[in-house]
């Protein structure tokens, strides 16, 4: 009887091999041949799942987004509303090894969006999703009556997004100077600054 192959798992395995090559050797070394070797499959098998390198990169980038989104949605949040919001936003920061790998891969792919229309389209979708997450946090602070009365919600949504994005970048590029603890402390300080009497 022929062995049944779980095609979704195989595609994820290939995407994870792509991540590994990118993190260890850089995007310029992420050839189909090298990725196939790391995934322990033939080049022909890889091309069966992804006919082009761009198609592989889009799937790999989407997998990063899906994992972050699933973790954020399925997590159990505890503590005060501010603590829960900090915990939620921390899912988008490289504060542990899994999140660091995801963010590093995402940032590498982001440079490729300048020349790859398919990656650019996906990047725009994720940008909108992240913007929505920041909007949800600011709106929640307002709904709970925690935010300062003169808060400019639209401006604060943009500022929160820029803060998260910037901290993620610095956390990847300068982990020795911008640690997970510093990211968490900065995020906590910022959220408290949006609130009245906290």
UniProtKB/TrEMBL annotation:
One of its GO terms (molecular function) is transcription cis-regulatory region binding. The keyword Disulfide bond does not apply. Keywords: DNA-binding, Repressor, Transcription, Transcription regulation. InterPro entries: BetI_C, DNA-bd_HTH_TetR-type_CS, Homeodomain-like_sf, HTH-type_TetR-like_transc_reg, HTH_TetR, Tet_transcr_reg_TetR-rel_C_sf. The keyword Ribosomal protein does not apply. Residues 31-50 bind DNA. Residues 8-68 form the HTH tetR-type domain. This is TetR family transcriptional regulator. It comes from Virgibacillus necropolis.
